[in-house]
Amino acid sequence: MPTNLTSAKLVEDLLGGIPNEFDELIGQLIVRVSAKIEEKAGLVFAAATRTEYQDGANRDILLLDHGPINAVTSVHEVVYGGASPVETMIPATDYVAAGLRSEGWKLKGHLIRVGASWGRGRRRWKVVYNAGWVDSVDQTVANSIPQGIVEAATEAVARMYTLRDWRGVTDAQLGDYRVRPLSSEQLDRDLEIAIASYRTPRF
């Protein structure tokens, strides 16, 4: 389930009011737009504690699946082959967490090994960490979803709402209404720019 990156109130405020009969449609559009933005950014915006098993590649950087990092609980080396996997905790002094939210990072996090590399092996490294933003679109809440993302989502939902009666070969059904699908081509420049700064580059 995607993080809701805007709210019905924000969309209503932008449009200057929405009849109550469209509340369900607005809710559906919020979920749809939010999912598309998270898909394109490659991020889940809501903070959560996650346990991941990452492959090692004999490099000093270990990429994580989420970000930005709030805190790393523990890192373990996992050895397979016996009756059950054996885990050995890696001392916190042996790695540095990079991509911290507290330092303004917006992308997926990674761990840098100090004086060594993350040895090669499938699912060899277990990482327990917390990453993401507070699940709120209220900008008065500390560490809430970034304002640029909230604004982009709000504008996209409003745009789809105003096109709810559009007809065409590529339209999609949402309840009793047809709306223009939110495809990559239809994301305007502002939305693309807002998402682009959250896309994780390749290392």
Structure overview:
By secondary structure, the chain is α+β, with helices and mostly antiparallel strands. The protein has two domains: 8-44 and 137-196, no CATH class; 48-131, no CATH class. The chain is built from four helices and nine strands, in the order ααβββββββαββα. Strands 1-7-3-4 form a four-stranded antiparallel sheet, with no helix packed on it. The protein has a three-stranded antiparallel sheet with strand order 2-6-5, with no helix packed on it. Strands 8-9 form a two-stranded antiparallel sheet. Helix 3 (147-162) packs antiparallel against helix 4. The relative contact order is 0.22.
Topology (SSEs and partners):
Elements: H1 8-15, H2 23-41, E1 48-56, E2 61-63, E3 69-79, E4 86-89, E5 95-98, E6 110-113, E7 121-131, H3 147-162, E8 172-174, E9 177-179, H4 189-196
Antiparallel strand pairs: 1-7, 2-6, 3-4, 3-7, 5-6, 8-9
Helix pairs in contact: 1-3, 2-3, 3-4
